[in-house]
Amino acid sequence: MTKHCRRLFVAIALPLALQAGAADDDEDTLYQVSTIDALLAGVYQGVAAISDVLPHGDFGLGTFAALDGELILLDGIVYQAAADGQVNEMPATTRTPFISVTHFEADQRLTPPPGQDYAAFKTWLEAQLPSRNIAYAVRVEGSFARMTYRSVPRQQQPYPPLLEASKQQRVFQQDQISGTLIGFWCPTFTKGLNVPGFHLHFLSADHAHAGHVLDFELTQGQLALDPTNGWQVELPMSPAFLETDLGQDRSAALHHVEQRKSGR
Question: What residues form the membrane-spanning segments (predicted)?
Fold first, then answer.
């Protein structure tokens, strides 16, 4: 990160890998900019350039400045799932208000049962987790009988809370589609910091369709799991972040935003 950008952030490191000779750099670390509660509160100003984030990971998700679509980071390439349904590869100068990334390395491989919808998949995978006290990066390469996903349009200042902005979301459904699920499972105690439970985005194999996952029906797939026992959070020093009341419990709003399948 550049000297200029360092002045914009204060870092909180949660160094949970305490054993002697623990891995250096960002291996097995989830790195994030800002917090999910700040995003829920409408803090959409782009506080970090993608170029500053990429050294910390090649896999992840988030959004763009002004909430301009869904962000997917896969194999080191950043894609925008725009509200008009287009998928765009984004330059490193693009800015983000919220992003979570890691250097993905598959430590465990599983085969999900075919025919699962998103709810059944979550129940099944949570039962496979070695512990619910660390985060996991989740990657699924598969084919789907149905994929339902969404994106949100660029917002104008003064920015509305995410619950209001999500009323403008565009919901898409593709049938008989192949692609990749990208995201994380985070522990319950990360409430306010990140999304507890599952947060997944989708990118089709032809890079023509992408967005925030709402539901799916899995035909077949292979799952790779990467436990992350380190956590680094960069908190913005921007006025919008510093002056926002982040003491509220926004759990209900987050649940509604994550699961909302219509504009209501």
Answer: none
